[in-house]
Write a structure and sequence with these properties.
The chain is mainly α and 171 residues long. The protein contains 6 helices and no strands.
């Protein structure tokens, strides 16, 4: 009887933890998109007011951004010292960022697209592209905020309910 009780507690706890972890992933993506929005705002200011070259901007963002973006900018900056293929480097490192972050494929594809246009366009066009991407981020964040309220509760309850269901099956 004690083993069944211990098994039940472990099952409910494990399933609940899975639900809470999944809900945490949603919140982490939101935080990372907010950080990306902050970075884009800084990037826009650096391009518009200081006309900062891309290598210097990358160094600045690698120091000021939060993980995983600080690592992303640091890797791009280091590889740019060895090669002048900015767009290729940005593309590869954006792929790597997708593996290390909570951003989804759509977020990464848009980041790749932004990188393909940085440094190639005139200052005004770069600023407009950054503004466009920032607006898209704001729209996503509004949608995510609403979805997170619903999905967070759903994931947590689903985890607990799955734990209870499996516990009943085991009894």
């Amino acid at each position: 009887m004690e083993l069944k009780l211990i098994g039940t507690v472990i099952t409910i706890t494990a399933c609940s933890a899975i639900g809470y972890l999944k809900a945490g992933d949603l919140e982490e993506r939101k935080k990372q998109l907010l950080e990306l929005k902050r970075i884009l705002s800084m990037m826009q200011d650096e391009i518009r007011y200081a006309a900062t070259p891309i290598p210097e901007m990358l160094t600045l963002f690698s120091e000021k951004a939060k993980v995983p973006f600080s690592d992303f900018f640091s890797r791009v900056q280091k590889q740019l010292e060895e090669s002048n293929e900015f767009q290729d480097i940005w593309y590869r490192e954006a792929e790597e960022l997708g593996k290390q972050s909570s951003l989804n494929c759509e977020d990464i594809e848009e980041l790749k697209q932004l990188g393909s246009e940085l440094g190639c366009l005139d200052i005004t066009s770069q600023i407009h592209r950054i503004l466009y991407y920032t607006e898209r981020l704001e729209e996503k964040l509004q949608i995510i905020t609403e979805e997170n309220r619903q999905k967070t509760r759903l994931y947590r309850l689903s985890g607990v309910m799955a734990g209870l269901f499996f516990s009943i099956l085991l009894l």
